[in-house]
Amino acid sequence: MEDETTRSTTNAAENERGDRVLDAGALRALAHPLRVKIYDILSQYGPQTASSLAERLGESSGSTSYHLRALAKQDLIHEVDGRGSGRERWWERPKGGVSFANAEAIKTPSGRAATQIVMGEFFKLRQEQLMQFIDRGLAEEEEAWQDGSMISTATARLTPEQSAELSRKIMALIDDAVDNYRNQTGENVRPVTIRADLFPLPELED
């Protein structure tokens, strides 16, 4: 399965891997809770149809089909070549990383609002998945998966330059795993979400 990297804070000027930085039009197209969910499912679980997405999301296939077309207009997704028919079209997310952080887009009120909606919905979904794992996975997953999982948080005192260097090192590890295992199949292979958060804490008031 493919889970291409989605970044929220990568500066376009420092985008060494050539990730697609979403422009204002793509951000506005994605700025809808259901579209973020559809995009996320395609990212984590691979190609889907409007019907399979409707079943997963509790929506009508007409609704998911409409939102799929809206995402396709901005090249956020595309049809899978050679799969499906006119009535059963398969959709996938293009290969490659994506960054929500567009320095130009957030300079305008509409671009900033779209970015906030997309990032807010994206991390809301990630938080829900984390809480589901804490609530059920810790007890129900087999021991091998429990041993192979990690939930960690830490605090360090850094300069902006040190924070940027740490970010690059963490992303290099994640990118390496994605590059090596994005197409892996076989026994006991499942999609795994890899999340890294690194941001400054607010100053305490005196």
TrEMBL record:
Q: Which positions fall inside the HTH arsR-type domain?
A: 25-102
Q: Which InterPro entries match?
A: ArsR-like_HTH, HTH_ArsR_DNA-bd_dom, WH-like_DNA-bd_sf, WH_DNA-bd_sf
Tell me the superkingdom of the source: Bacteria
Gene Ontology terms for molecular function = DNA-binding transcription factor activity
This one is known as: ArsR family transcriptional regulator
